[in-house]
Amino acid sequence: EAIEKGGYDHFMLKEIFEQPRSIADSMRGRVNSQEEILQLGGLRDYMDKLALAKRIIIVGCGTSWHAGLVAEYVFEELARIPVEVEYASEFRYRNPIIHADDFVIAISQSGETADTLAAIQLAKSKGATIFGVCNVVGSSIARETHAGAYTHAGPEIGVASTKAFTAQVTVLTQMAVAMAHKRGTITEELYRQLLLDLSAIPQKVEQVLKAADRIKEIAYIFTYARNFIYLGRGLNFPVALEGALKLKEISYIHAEGYPAAEMKHGPIALIDEDMPVVFIATKDSSYEKIVSNIQEVKARKGRVIAIVTEGDTLIPGMVDFVIEVPETHEVLIPLLSSIPLQLLSYYIAVMRGRNVDQPRNLAKSVTVE
Ligand code: AGP
């Protein structure tokens, strides 16, 4: 087992550090920024249908559902197609409205999640085309879907999903860019820029990982916090949800993720000097708004950890702790901003003496309904 962990203390840490490679693998043979090519083999026969689709429905559970929420923003922003993201477990029991020209994307690391499998079968029975985004090759979901794209993240052993999440987001983003290009909803210039920016992500992830020691110090300070709030806007809202889920599942600390603007509709009542608040506050279209959300929390003595874009000079002066991520195109930010949150959860869980790779009550794949 020690050999399999490759010198890391836990599989989760190894998998977090594998992300520059796993993200690159999820683009290998698909993105070629020099030749300006983006091709997803599994999508080829469905590209025309996808380009004409009226609606995309995304189904998944847990972290895979969070990847779906990120994809909703990216598809709508670039390809201008309406997207609905559903918990597979709710979708399947709700008599959902599905049309034959809907394109359903099922996301699953394991490819064995019972609720996601059942949601696919239901959508299939209504005539929809189902596309799978799975990590495990030959899994039940990969076989049940009409077509798909593997995430190629490699085996994920830690129960808490890390590299599978970023690979899912990378594949879904490639789909959105390909679709936007086909539909003509992005300019050639933006298309080229996105391919370049995608290709640069692995090296930028490498850079984020260099903050591990600094994140460890922050984790030390908050090891015994009883609660955490994670706030983000836009694309960073699903990142907030994912950060909170990661912390809950491996450290057993109660954590909530919210869209930052929703704070004033309730959660703000929780804020005092004992409440750590993680803001995912990168430079994007909601930057100014999130700056005022940070002020609201600081005015109530909340302790703020902020994930910011490198070179930000404003937020560091307002908050208690800062973790920087490099600049990238707005739709790619979750691929960078989610990584410090994985490390923060990991180090807090280790410091609390938790069984990081196999947290209590959880299984790597949930094959029961
Ligand atoms: C993630 O850290 C969790 N362990 C869990 O939420 C997981 O993402 C969910 O069970 C879905 O699994 P799947 O991707 O294999 O379908």
Task: Report what the structure shows.
The chain is α/β, with parallel strands linked by helices and 369 residues long. The chain is 43% helix and 17% strand. The chain is built from 13 helices and 12 strands. It has helices at residues 11-17, 19-25, 47-52, 62-79, 88-91, 114-125, 140-144, 163-183, 188-209, 212-221, 236-251, 287-299, 333-351, and strands at residues 31-32, 37-38, 55-60, 83-87, 102-108, 129-134, 147-150, 227-232, 254-259, 276-280, 303-309, 321-325. Strand 3 (55-60), helix 4 (62-79) and strand 4 (83-87) form a beta-alpha-beta unit. The longest helix is centred in the middle third of the chain and has 22 residues, at 188-209. The protein is globular, with a radius of gyration of 20 Å. The relative contact order is 0.14. 2-deoxy-2-amino glucitol-6-phosphate (AGP) is lined by residues 61-64, 108-110, 113, 116, 159-161, 249, 365-366. Residues 46-186, 211-359 form the SIS domain.
